[in-house]
Amino acid sequence: MRFKNYFPALMMASALILLGSCHKETSKTTGWDYNNPKNGGFEVRPYSEQQTGPGLVFIEGGTFAMGQTQDDVMFDWDNQPRRVTVSSFYIDQTELRNLDYLEYLYWLDHVYGTDYPGVYRKALPDTLVWRDKLAYNEPLVEYYFRHPAYRNYPVVGVTWVQANDYCAWRTDRVNENLLIKKGILAMDPSQKDENNFNTDAYLAGQYEGLVEKPLPDLNPNGTGTRKVKMEDGILLPKYRLPTEAEWEFAALGLIGNTLYERVIERKNYPWNGSYTRTSESRYYGGFMDNFRRAKGDYMGVAGNLNDGADIPAPAGSYFPNDYGLYNMAGNVSEWVLDVYRPMNSMENEDLRPFRGNVFKTEVRDAEGFIAQKDSLGHLKYRDVTTAEAMNRKNYRSADNINYLDGDYASLIGVDWKNPPKDTSTTSMMYENGKTSNVYTSLISDHTRVYKGGNWKDGAYWLSPSTRRFLDENDASDCIGFRCAMTRVGGTLPGK
Hints:
CATH class: Alpha Beta
Strand content: 5-15%
CATH architecture: Alpha-Beta Complex
Shape: globular
Helix content: 10-25%
Order of helices and strands: HEEEEHHHHHEEEHEEEEEHEEHEEEEEE
Distance between the termini: 40 Å
Radius of gyration: 26 Å
């Protein structure tokens, strides 16, 4: 009987919901209907929020004390603590594996191998980084990258430049797959040279692909169908390297130590406490990550190994932090996006801090249209000119790497009547001697930060606050990387 009493009310509620869902959405400012071809067809497609890309973990952002958490035993004084805010973002759960990079190389060879073999060769990791003058590492030179026994181990021997190229390639493969899953494009294994899916080229109308089911075009002056636009919310933002602030924030995982906006314990490592072993009863005494415990001790004593890995361990080994991220302390160090400066900690912004901005724009033809993509299928970009930035109040030049840190324009008391020919170099601040009338320095505009300890490091470097640097074209047997992605829209999922 109670069911019969409620049934009419249920039916009425269902009808109201149905009618509401059929009602056309109307502009709150003009009163015109969206998605109506009769009034011009301005489209507003349904969108909830950004989906999490393959391999990524959502990192809820916030404020934290970035910088030194222990004694500066290296006396670098390049990491003074300061409070900054990091926006929510996404980051890979583990380091990129050899298997992931092999997939990348296979695609490059498949698409460019015939006409542009140099593209494939340029992307190859440097396996010779394993060589040591006084150690027998030739088996690692031969097997570490390609043997299936190491397929789940983190890729090393990759430069900062190569890591960025991988991120760009991954963006395109993920977005192409999204369009295929939506039924908009069909799978096209015959892509060659410039005829390959590139997100920017597709959005600029310079890639067609095998069209399966294009979106309807509500513009009455259109052709009836159209490509996907950024406004449709189908394509994901670009994969990229994390900034130094993002990486450090994610590694610390302070979300597990926060109570009502109060960090109840500041971490020295990605885990609580000052020890590198776990106190969890099931794994009591087990090492929290892969590092060198002492000189000559890379994995412990036979029969009772400590971290059990003399070289990098498989990605995802050991214990995750409170964000669910693995190996943010040891295993391999990781490239981040920033250019290195010793004074970076004192002069960056306190919201999304980053040093390395070089603002660019698309190359356009004489009529103002985006120029034709290059022979590899990529759009062409150039630095913003001084004339284009002349009336800007937030920037005045394309290259801001040296802003407030070492370039001639930042110095006090300069002789502007007799400026040097090159005012963009950092040599005036970081010169390290003069060779053949050329000033040299380990620090330049191509010096990049890498973070986290690795399998060759002592415990000091396991702290996410530590920072080191290397030229962007150099590689190492102990540096890998993981990708990140910007979170667009709300700070929290579903809000």
